[in-house]
Amino acid sequence: MIDKSNKILSNPGYCSFYFFYFCHMKFSFKNDYSEGCHPEILQALLRHNLDQQAGYGEDAYSLEAKQIIREKAGNPEAAVYLVSGGTQANLLVISSILRPYQCAISAATGHILNNETGAIEATGHKILGIEKEDGKLTPEDIIPVLESHRNVPHQVMPKLVYISNSTELGTVYTFAELEALSVFCKKHKLYLFMDGARLGHGLTAETSDLTLEKVASLTDIFYLGGTKNGALIGEAIVISNTELQEDFAYSIKQKGALLAKGRILGIQFLELMKNDLYFDLARHANRQAAKIRKAMGERHVRFLSETCTNQIFPVLPDDLILKLAEKFDFYVWKKVGENHSAIRLITSWNTPDEPVEELIAMIREEL
């Protein structure tokens, strides 16, 4: 049993504080999955460890978690599947619903195009990339792609539009933007698939007017990312389009994504969803990033993209970046001009105040 009186174990933020200050480790702003999982999830895994349950996602925890997700999505007919990771979710969805001669459309910054080692292409499906500074697609972006692929049957057939919310650049879709995409896709018989690895952060962004129900009603398929929002592992795929639900389970099994101990995923999503812990954790990550963004803005730092989620991309002098790297881990995203570069800073569900305040202090001192 976990001793709740031990503040290192019971306080999510204290763990990072402890290692950051007492073990002299550099604090990481590289990603939002450096930590294990939220203590409530760990406690639930321990609490139910010896319970005997059915396998392959038929355990009581998975079934209850799926039902809660359907209710929160406002779609009792949705099919929900729990899988281990985001790349796996993208691969399963795209490879299962596209025919061999069909392809996907994505922003050039899309995760499936740049960060999945050609996983989609390895299944025989081409990805058509569109350059977008903000990482978001619009109907106007997609029209030229459709028009340039009319040489039937000599070219691949565009069939799926892949988007992310929040995007790889930390930007978010508005309701109007997503609705316009949804209407366009239906008109042109395209599937609309939302990568939700950071959907919690996108939905709880201060500028967001989207809800889980709206996402479910406007997309054919989306998923709720747990890996980057407090879970050990796990993504919840939600299929709203009933035509795409049939036989999806076969793809999950065939591609090695159906866990015998599916309870591991079910327990985690049950804890994340039942009391809205999922959204609370995302809000915390967004708030911590907002503190850094505000402090940098006060020093007239410019950003690659205007974001209100847990990802920010400040453009800083290269010599300052070297100083920051002595105390913090982060990615240098791209070179901007001769003496400046953009870095990526990501806060997580567990990012405590102390390293945020120290980073802010360095920025104020140096700029």
Explain what the structure shows.
The protein is α/β, with parallel strands linked by helices and 367 residues long. The chain contains 15 helices and 14 strands. It has helices spanning 7-10, 12-22, 39-47, 60-73, 86-97, 111-114, 139-147, 175-187, 199-203, 212-218, 248-254, 263-274, 277-298, 318-325, 353-366, and strands spanning 27-28, 79-83, 102-107, 127-130, 157-164, 191-195, 221-225, 235-239, 302-303, 311-312, 314-317, 328-329, 331-336, 340-346. The strands form three sheets. The chain has a seven-stranded mixed sheet with strand order 2-8-7-6-5-3-4, with helices on both faces. Strand 5, helix 8 (175-187) and strand 6 (191-195) form a beta-alpha-beta unit. Helix 3 packs across helix 12, helix 4 (60-73) crosses helix 12 and helix 13 packs parallel to helix 15. The protein is globular, with a radius of gyration of 21 Å. The chain starts with 6 loop residues before the first helix and ends with a helix. Mean pLDDT is 93; it is low at 1-10 and 12-22.
Please outline what is shown here.
Helix content is 41%, strand content 17%.
Poorly predicted segments: 1-10, 12-22
Strand content: 15-25%
* Largest sheet data: 7 strands, mixed
Distance between the termini: 48 Å
What structural class do helix, strand and pairing data support? alpha/beta
Helix share bin: 40-55%
Q: What sequence of helices (H) and strands (E) makes up the elements?
A: HHEHHEHEHEHEHEHHEEHHHEEEHEEEH
Shape call: globular
Whole-number mean pLDDT: 93
Question: From the alpha-carbon coordinates, what is the Rg to the nearest angstrom?
Answer: 21 Å
Helix count?
Answer: 15
Please count the beta strands (DSSP E, at least 2 residues each).
14
Strand order of the largest sheet: 2-8-7-6-5-3-4
